[in-house]
Design brief:
flat; mainly alpha; single chain; 5 helices; about 140 residues
Length: about 140
């Protein structure tokens, strides 16, 4: 069983850090460099994912504020409603991650749990960033 868990851990590490370089953004590259520096230890991977999560959260909030300042009133109200709903979802999802991965046996689940939290935040940040990028096209058409 321990061999299976270790093999699973190694597989997850490889999947997390084996994306093609051109598909990675700055935060992903920094996280990978951080993990390599820590030689992919459980502690280093958890800390690196935690740092990346904080960066994604900051990016998400900056993008959200930028979107709010540029959207017309109706779209702004929809964004606020959507963001509040996403925050409720995120908090519930974080609790689920905490109680499932957090209660699993073995330290390898810590970096996996932190990576799940980071990925959820990253996904929302990228969605908002995409909206911000296409905004001129949406509202400047005749």
């Amino acid at each position: 069983m321990k061999l299976f868990l270790f093999a699973s851990f190694v597989l997850i590490v490889n999947v997390c850090f084996s994306q093609k370089d051109e598909n990675k953004n700055k935060i992903d590259k920094e996280e990978e460099a951080c993990a390599e520096k820590g030689q992919y230890t459980t502690s280093a991977m958890t800390n690196c994912s935690s740092e990346a999560y904080l960066k994604w959260d900051k990016k998400l909030n900056q993008t959200y504020k930028s979107l709010l300042s540029k959207l017309p009133s109706i779209a702004k109200a929809k964004l606020i409603t959507a963001q509040k709903a996403w925050i409720r979802f995120k908090e519930t999802e974080f609790e689920l991650i905490k109680f499932t991965y957090g209660s699993a046996e073995g330290t390898m689940w810590r970096p996996i749990a932190m990576d799940k939290v980071k990925e959820l935040t990253k996904e929302r940040a990228l969605i908002l960033e995409e909206l911000l990028e296409i905004l001129p096209d949406m509202y400047l058409k005749d």
